[in-house]
Design brief:
610 residues; mainly beta; Methylamine Dehydrogenase, Chain H; Neuraminidase; five-stranded antiparallel β-sheet
Length: 610
């Protein structure tokens, strides 16, 4: 494949030198295109090592993936640069790929099926990754079988860094702290424990420092803020904490701490020996993909090489709301494109409450699907998530990340008054479903000791929080049946997400509805069907309610890979059960941007901030 398509630097006008502006498209002959593409590839490698006689130029490239590939970056970092900065590894939804910057093509890595969050060995000869069956593996770039290092429960939620001495520091869902394991295999050992008494919930996104004696990581608080960075000495076990910075920290030689915040990359002077910040942070780059979810602390989609090259995935694009027929054969626009996240249809199906991602937060809006137009329910700068409707459709309930606490708030759908607080707490409490009898609100509650559980909240009682599920596993995405007697939810207790139904409010025996994985359960309005997702396939089971619950064998309705399905409420069902409200995925996510000698941008930005 020509470099024109694999790098995209000619067809998109996306090459810049020294911070210059993109050039316009130029009509060139195929011969000249090939010659120029080859020259660019040679220049990329030549600039990987700084010239001692003159400062190296900054080279900005746009890597365009093959048409049959699409980046999978909904949970954690899905790309990694080699330590030498001469190749990038990335994941699509099925496989890992290795792309040398000197090559026209990416190489599929055998044995890397269903991978998550790749990372390189210090010598650049191996790639580590997590798998869907809860394993941490490594595979040689030169070819060969993947080798299992250890168990790592969490798949998409796990992250790792491989340091010198063959130590891998990683996270998984069996512990909220960091673990360490030898790359050759063995039992992981804990290296950090979150300080629960001071509000820490989890440690995430480790990044080893040069020499392998220390590691940077993100500290997730109980209210799911992720702006504190930890620096751990593996020799002493001492942790230094740097508050009000950001997430996904990475060290950049010769002395910078790089981190992400609100879709931008920042850098601050940092001493890797003493683990000390030596100056204020400076914004270096905007437009980097980063999740702002209050319920899951996702990382930023960027990676750095040892010699200062940057690779990142451009920021999230806008999506359109679509009405999709029951068999998936036809889709029509329901609302104009925006940066939608979670959505929920009103009981009568005429309006949608949506979460819309903003610069550094998220707002709640109501969209009129019949007449058009939209109404904002929250204020600028607030971080609001997971809107649901009251059973009568008059109000929208959502959660708000406050200063050290989570607020559960309610606002009229017409925006006629400001939101009021229904409940508050130091831990995430996010609305999931409203009782048809108006007497209870179903919420997802996250706690360090049990992770995600489902609770019933009586908004009129003092002792108002009652558990529906309370285990060491994640349970969430709960929905009450139309008659209010049964509750469906997703659970990860089998290390694979499945959909269950149990009585409500009594905690009686439950029934598993999904057979080979399932999430995002949604009841039909008449209570005769339960819809859910199996990966990217919309499934349905016929159900009977009443004194006993029964469910048929689920059947597939259609593959919904053209729609965004990774949010906790990614779709909803119309009142008549004949169509779905969904978000389109837009153009395929196939762009990786590479900035060779990015360290120069960092140096200039930090110097200007001092």
């Amino acid at each position: 494949r020509a470099l024109l398509h694999s790098l995209g630097v000619i067809s998109t006008g996306s090459m810049e030198r020294g911070g210059g502006r993109p050039t316009a498209k130029t009509a060139l002959t195929p011969f000249l295109l090939g010659a120029l593409a080859a020259a660019l590839a040679f220049a990329a490698i030549s600039w990987l090592t700084p010239d001692v006689t003159s400062p190296p130029d900054v080279l900005r490239l746009n890597i365009l993936l093959a048409e049959d590939q699409e980046l999978d970056f909904d949970w954690g970092p899905s790309l990694a640069l080699s330590p030498q900065g001469d190749a990038v590894a990335y994941e699509d939804e099925q496989q890992l790929y290795y792309r040398p910057l000197s090559s026209f093509e990416a190489q599929l890595i055998p044995g890397s099926e269903l991978p998550y969050n790749p990372f390189f060995s210090p010598d650049g000869k191996w790639i580590g990754f997590f798998t869907d069956d809860n394993k941490l593996k490594r595979v040689p770039i030169a070819g060969g079988n993947a080798i299992t290092i250890c168990d790592a429960v969490g798949g998409k939620g796990s992250n790792a860094s491989w340091g010198v001495g063959d130590t891998i520091v990683f996270t998984d869902y069996t512990t909220n702290g960091l673990l360490a394991v030898n790359a050759q295999g063995g039992l992981p050992e804990p290296v950090t424990t979150p300080d629960h008494e001071n509000g820490e919930f989890r440690h995430a996104f480790p990044a080893m420092l040069p020499g392998g004696k220390s590691v940077l990581f993100s500290i997730v608080t109980a209210d799911f803020r992720i702006d504190t960075i930890g620096a751990l000495s593996l020799e002493t076990g001492v942790i230094k904490r740097f508050e009000s910075l950001g997430t996904s920290p990475i060290y950049l030689s010769p002395g910078y701490l790089v981190f992400a915040r609100a879709g931008s990359l920042f850098a601050a002077p940092f001493d890797a020996e003493t683990l000390t910040l030596e100056g204020p942070p400076a914004r270096v780059l905007e437009g980097v993909t980063q999740s702002l979810s209050v319920m899951r602390p996702y990382g930023s989609q960027y990676t750095l090489s040892d010699n200062g090259t940057l690779a990142y995935i451009p920021a999230m694009r806008e999506r359109s709301l679509m009405w999709v027929d029951r068999d998936g054969s036809h889709a029509t626009p329901a609302a104009a494109a925006a940066r939608y996240a979670n959505l929920r249809l009103s009981p009568d199906g005429t309006m949608a409450a949506v979460e819309m991602i903003e610069v550094d937060a998220a707002g709640i809006w109501v969209i009129d699907l019949t007449r058009g137009g939209r109404t904002r329910l929250t204020s600028d700068g607030e971080d609001n998530h997971f809107p649901i409707w009251t059973s009568g459709g008059e109000e929208v309930v959502f959660c708000t990340a406050g200063d050290g606490e989570i607020l559960l708030r309610s606002a009229p759908a017409d925006g006629s008054r400001p939101p009021i607080v229904l409940a508050r707490g130091p831990e995430p409490i996010c609305p999931s479903s409203w009782s048809p009898h108006h007497d209870a609100l179903i919420v997802s509650r996250v706690r360090p000791e049990t992770r995600g559980d489902v609770f019933s909240l009586d908004v009129s009682a003092k002792d108002r929080m009652q558990p529906i599920t309370e285990t060491r596993d994640w349970e969430w995405q709960a929905r009450l049946s139309p008659d209010g007697a049964w509750i469906a939810y997703a659970s990860e207790e089998s290390y694979r997400t499945e959909v269950y139904v149990q009585p409500y409010p009594d905690r009686g025996g439950r029934t598993r509805v999904s057979l080979e994985g399932g999430s995002h359960p949604v009841w039909s309005t008449d209570g005769r069907e339960l819809f859910f997702l199996d990966e990217d396939t919309v499934m349905v089971a016929e159900v009977t309610l009443g004194e006993h619950f029964t469910a048929s064998r689920p059947e597939a309705l259609f593959v919904a890979d053209a729609f965004e399905l990774e949010f906790d409420t990614s779709f909803d069902v119309s009142a008549d059960g004949r169509r779905f409200l969904m978000m389109d995925r837009g153009p395929p996510r196939r762009n990786i941007r590479v900035v060779v000698n990015w360290w120069r941008d960092v140096k200039n930005a930090v110097a200007a901030a001092r």
